[in-house]
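Input record (one chain):
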Amino acid sequence: GGDVTAYRSYLYAADLTVALWRLLFRGPNGRAYNVGSKFDLTIGELTRVVAGALGLPPTVQVLRPSVRGQAISRYVPDVWRAEREVGIREHTSLSDALKKTAAWHRHAGGEFRSRKLCRV
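The corresponding structure, as predicted from the sequence alone:
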């Protein structure tokens, strides 16, 4: 669970694939690495990014408001080691990833019909 103030990050699948191959071939055996995006945003901000990428109005209905004094949830990887030691980089912004994904779905015959993007 969570609310619109929770922080998350998102990595495009192609960037993840490149990162995993790079770790396989360039990372030392037995060394642990975090993989993901270091660019975080709140769930509330995410709704605006998704709406903008898809050309839709940002319609958000908050069902569970944040609780005053409650710690903010943050699930964002520290990718410092993977960047420095193995050269992993994020190449696709979240907005571009959403646009590419939407274009793929449209080409595959699907549509984004709902104007109600997010219920949190």
